[in-house]
Design goal:
homodimer; Arc Repressor Mutant, subunit A; about 65% helix; Tetracycline Repressor, domain 2; 2 domains; mainly alpha; DNA-binding
Chain lengths: ~200, ~200
Amino acid sequence: MTSERGKKLSDEPALRADAQKNRELILSAAEELFLEKGAGVPLEEVAKRAGVGIGTLYRRFPTREALLAATSNERFLSLAETSRARDPDLTPGDAIRAYLEELARNTSTYQSLAASIGTVIQCGTPGCNAITAEGHRLLQRGQEAGTIRRDVTYEDFIYVVTAISIAMENDRSSKSRIGHLVDLFLNGINVKGSE
Amino acid sequence: MTSERGKKLSDEPALRADAQKNRELILSAAEELFLEKGAGVPLEEVAKRAGVGIGTLYRRFPTREALLAATSNERFLSLAETSRARDPDLTPGDAIRAYLEELARNTSTYQSLAASIGTVIQCGTPGCNAITAEGHRLLQRGQEAGTIRRDVTYEDFIYVVTAISIAMENDRSSKSRIGHLVDLFLNGINVKGSE
DNA sequence: TTATAATACGGAGGAAGCCTCCACTTGACA
DNA sequence: TGTCAAGTGGAGGCTTCCTCCGTATTATAA
């Protein structure tokens, strides 16, 4: 729903040592449980596994999305980094293909994350910012090269990732369909039906 | 989640008069509240507005999805009917475009319906069956005409409708983007980038 | 009609989650 | 070592879900 909370910009006053430790306990408990039971796992269960009170969890991560963004932070950073690194070797279209496939695969890491990935990705963590910036960059590059339709927006990327991730959730066996679905979209956004 | 419940096939033993009346009271209360407050409205509130007990509501509609499918029944029937009727006047691609746009618009009728439309549409009501059959028909027609890629499935239609509807919910201003997003998808599933 | 059996009703109540609030504890720093 | 801002935790209030079962109503057979 909302997404204006969970500001994780670096104007933060630096955590006290114990708080920092708890933050990390919460993050690894959350990571475990999201993997085991999906993004909808009761937050009380996360707090319990982390060995902290529920109040502590909520103070640090005011929303579930903030916690999801935090546990995804490193994956997002590395995804953006990888994308930037391989960029010179690929055509604009192939770079976008790789980006979308990885983002979709990533979103399928936690069951039930799909529907909220659009919100999560706006949480303002370094990872979220990096991945968003990289997406914009790839899109712009593709459009400047004249191979991507001008009316495509970055939001379209997110919609596609959402659709694909939902598909993955409904049919676990279809991991291989990520490529197929990205393909359809790419075929759609190309200026000419190249492929 | 599950979707095996809520069988609405006509092997039902016919409702008693009072039960039939209550069923209708529930349906109109639900329709009102879904419109006012979205598909996530508390079912107890629906029961209250209908003037029946919560137990009665659950006996008639074992899941929220069953209730959603029931309130959508007539819209689905008419959507399928309309699609069938205009079919001869349109190319296969345009018929699919119209179908997807209307289904997406329809799904945006109730706020928060998007995420579960895939489940709702499998509930087995006459409307659900009609709309599913029509989608399969359109897809097959397009593929036989050679204008739609062979590797596209009906599930792809549902994923796209889901993603578009989620997009609508996240960004109220983008009602007009339905056409754009359907367009990208269609451009993608065409054998050649026709358009 | 009336009796009776199958249907249906309704809402109390237990379970689960969410999130806030605040009395108490602890770390940082002078 | 004293001070106090920062941090803690979990009780408790709230919402929603859904089941269960004693009571009530309808259909039908006699």
